[in-house]
Structures are given as C-alpha cells and as structure tokens.
C-alpha cells in the first residue's frame, strides 16, 4: 500500500465547502489513489487515526462517496469524482431546500406587530438583487400588483418577472411607452414619463433616469427602482406603513389620470 501523501490545502478546503470534514476528505482522496482498501489500509494511505477510520468510512458511504464490499474483511472503494461531487451537490441542494422551508415557516409565524423590520426602508444594490426581490413580491401576491415603470425598464427587466403572478390577481401597469403587441394578461395604460412622477420626491428620484419604476404589491410591500448615474441600479424596498401609504397615494393619483386619459 502507498504511504500517505500530502494533499493540497486548496483541495481540502474545496471538499470542506462541499460538507466534508478534514478526515473525510483525506480518506476519500486516499481511496481515489487506489483500487480499493480495507479499513487498516485506509488508515495507512490517508494518515487518518485508526480509531477514526470506521466512523469516517460510514459517513462517506452515507454521503455516497464510498462503496463497500460484502467480503471479509470489507473493502472500500471511492465513487468516481464526477458522480461523487454530483452526489454531494444533490445533498447540499436538498438540505438547503429543507432549511429554507423550515426558516420560512418560522419567519411567517411572526405577526406584523413582532416584525421590527416593518418600519425599515432597505436599499438594494444591483439589478439581479432587485429583480430577485421583485420576483418574490410578485410570486407571493394575493390581492393586487400595481406598477409605474418606464417602458425600457418594464420590457427589458420586469415583464418576465410577472409570469408567476397568480391568474386571480389583477395587474395594473402604467408606462410611458410600449413597443410591440400589448399583453392581454395585464391592464396597460400609457402616460408621459412626467405623469409617472407626479410627486416632487418621485420626480427628483425617477425623472433623471430612463430606467426607473414604482411597484406595489397587496398594498403592503413597496419598491422604488432607480438607475444610478453610472448605470448601476439601486432600489428602496419597505413594508413600512409610511412608505406604502405614500406609494399607494401616488399610484392612485396616476391611475386616475391614466383611466381619465382613455375616456
């Protein structure tokens, strides 16, 4: 049997990031270097203490990284790396989904009165982060989705995010222009850009930018999307009663103008 060989630290760290302990990583790497080994031989090729070898092998079998023979003595062999890493990733994804479900249940158990962040306004940076928050808002909509957005922002970045909105939830859209066929799924209104920014605050925040918008879901969650001077978007998001009421009043005013414009 080969004597233990040094294992590159970056490789050990990569395996740790996939959920392996140091001993598990050393044993798996040791087995990859041989056609199969007994527990005693695993100790010799990996450098893992003899008393720890069997528990480590048991865990690696559970993680689908090692197979074991039904001979006496038992012999252990490494699952090929492609399959082994795929098995690890599948376990990680399963564990992450379970954790997400459990944490979400805990979060939703809190009533509005116990949620300290209800009165906070959060700043979100980067288009992908903003789109992720918007997608969450739209997907969880129960009563209404309303948005005022420039045509460029709406068609290039937002429209596809509306697909998961439940069919029973009305979607009202006001924009300054639209290119192509108008979607029948939504109520679409066209107004000049200045009309979308009726209040001084929104005019200051949104008018200078070609890509900007105001979004309100269920009258409980509001998001203001603004394009930065260097083209880097940012957004303000809140569930606070104050900002939601402000956005509610603004959207109501603009919607009234939009409906009056078609009469």
UniProtKB/TrEMBL annotation:
Q: Which InterPro entries match?
A: TrmB-like (IPR051797), Tscrpt_reg_TrmB_N (IPR002831), WH-like_DNA-bd_sf (IPR036388), WH_DNA-bd_sf (IPR036390)
Q: Name one Pfam family in it.
A: TrmB
Q: Which residues form the Transcription regulator TrmB N-terminal domain?
A: 15-81
Protein's name in the database: TrmB family transcriptional regulator
**Transmembrane stretches, by residue range?**
none
- Output the superkingdom of the source species: Archaea
Q: Taxonomic classification, please? A: Archaea, Methanobacteriati, Methanobacteriota, Stenosarchaea group, Methanomicrobia
């Amino acid at each position: 049997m080969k004597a233990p060989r040094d294992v590159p630290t970056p490789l050990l760290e990569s395996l740790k990031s996939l959920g392996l302990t140091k001993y598990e990583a050393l044993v798996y790497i040791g087995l990859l270097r041989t056609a199969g080994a007994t527990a005693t031989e695993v100790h010799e090729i990996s450098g893992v203490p003899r008393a720890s070898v069997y528990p480590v092998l048991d865990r690696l079998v559970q993680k689908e990284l090692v197979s074991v023979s039904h001979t006496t003595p038992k012999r252990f062999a490494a699952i090929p790396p492609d399959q082994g890493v795929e098995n690890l990733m599948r376990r990680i994804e399963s564990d992450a989904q379970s954790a997400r479900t459990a944490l979400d249940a805990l979060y939703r158990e809190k009533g509005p009165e116990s949620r300290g962040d209800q009165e906070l306004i959060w700043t979100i940076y980067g288009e992908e982060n903003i789109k992720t928050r918007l997608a969450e808002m739209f997907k969880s909509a129960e009563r209404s989705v309303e948005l005022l957005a420039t045509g460029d922002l709406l068609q290039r970045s937002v429209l596809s995010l509306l697909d998961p909105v439940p069919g029973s939830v009305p979607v009202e859209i006001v924009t300054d222009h639209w290119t192509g066929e108008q979607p029948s799924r939504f109520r679409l209104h066209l107004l000049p850009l200045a009309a979308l920014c009726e209040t001084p605050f929104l005019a200051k925040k949104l008018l200078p930018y070609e890509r900007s918008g105001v979004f309100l879901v269920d009258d409980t969650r509001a998001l203001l999307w603004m394009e930065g001077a260097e083209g880097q978007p940012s957004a303000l998001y809140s569930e606070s009663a104050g900002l939601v009421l402000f956005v509610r009043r603004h959207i109501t005013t603009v919607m009234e103008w939009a409906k009056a414009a078609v009469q």
